[in-house]
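for the record, two folds in this file. i put them one after another cuz i was lazy. first one right below, seq on top, structure tokens after. the second one comes after a little note so u can tell where it starts
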Amino acid sequence: MIGPINLTVAGLTFRQLFTRKRFIASALFAASPLVIALFFRATAHANDPTGVQFLRELYSGIVAFVLLPLAAVVFGTAAFGGEIDDGTIVYLLVKALPRWQLVLSKYVVAVFSTFVMMFVAILLPWLALGVQSDSAPLLEGFTAGIALGAALYCAIFVTMGLMSKRALVMGLLYIVVLEITLSPNVVGLKSLSVREFVMTVVGKVAAGVPGVKVGAVSTNTVWTMGAVILVASLALGIRWLQQYEMAERI
């Protein structure tokens, strides 16, 4: 055990998340931006010889907007999802582990898995285009952004995986309805949009890169609302697991 993380539970979760088929699918998923980057490199672009503008659009439009939430919803909902579906979660509940430690252990694995996949997704195109020095702040900014996004998205989706057998569908609806459809168009919802938080962090870290899209919320909103979303989601998941245990005993 390391602090609040139980290594046995974390290792079990990691094996559950990365079955052979899912590992191959994850590798292809993370490599998809590289394919786009190689196609870009194979063609001439007089207006963007270094590829910085291309990377900026690739990272914001594909990685942050599409791949990050999709990776998080898959890993987050699967952290508990399989055990809820087949009922094997009762074997975890009989162990003398605090319920908060059980949730946090699985949450950390989901965050780590999502972050690693997305870091590969932004690193490979950057390397493929020749590691331009003026694009380094862009890489740093999106690394920080996806770290925050992975932490917040996975908190939401791990709890969804605990609460519903249709968590994957619910998570996809959350992404499509809130993140893609409503938050870009409804001002009041921007302060609840993880994507806006990600882009605010990117804009802060990569402020020196021309044309970087900045989120529509302030840094204070990111940390305040981000903390609320993180704590509330995990607290709800822990509470639900405790109630699930009580129901099983009854």
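(here's the note) second protein begins now
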Amino acid sequence: MSYRATAFAAVIACAALWGVSGTIAQVLFQDHVSPVLLATIRLWGAAVLMLAAIALRSPSRLRLDRKSIRGLAIFGVFGFFAVQYSYFAAIAAIGVATATFLQYLGPALIVIYAAIAGRRLPTGVESLALLLAVSGTALLVLSAGAGSVTLPGLAFGLFSAVSLAFYTIYPRALLRALGPWTTSGYGFLFGAAFATAQLLVMHPTGPLHFSARDLWLIAFVVIVGTLLPFSLYISALRHLTPSEAGIAATAEPLAAAAAAFLLLGQALQGWQYLGGVLIVSAVLVLAGFGGRSAAARVEPSGVTAGGRPDP
């Protein structure tokens, strides 16, 4: 198998792990683990393990200047924390499949940002992607059964897409100066610190109590659902362009929907399937024509969303 074929397989594996991780998160929410608590644990776990790995392999990469600290703090709070918390809150409210499809509106929002920043109208390809994304969202939301997509759940899902767009656009200078590993490690750290503050405000309770099953599932989300796919994805980018990786990563919402059906018995309803297909198609259109799209020029190639991370 060639390096490129292996890299494609690695990204598809990442997407599957992210999708399954979202389903495991929903199981934890059903066990009364709150979204902000899981986001806090996931961010701290990823931060500690990633920074420890950097310290062992290349300690010099941990040095920061004052300007980088400010940028990393902004990225950690409005990027890592916002993506993690809004995505988990959406899962808790409307289910992992719908929440993941809504988050995949992020690339369409990047198109809008590129058009505004460039003071121009979207290109034909970008307009097609926006039409697919908006139509897909309408079908996903309006075709749901009564109470399936609540207003808070929809709000969190759309906010996760906005956060993903920010997470993708913002860290370009940080990536050039620090590289993807240092940027992500400190991004996780600042996000974790802010998440802890939010946790103390939202849940000022005593000691936390987890069942043995909860601890295993949390470990899965942190290690198998975060660090392992992130490492695979970064390695794959040595052999793939960001657009190629973006195409392969669209397997995530499909994996999330399949895992939700197999593990939780949850399924999309009627026209929601078409809505999901249209949203994924919008991402494929943008990724397939990435070299010609201004949106591609605002997409960094080193950091992916989640910590989920996405391309």
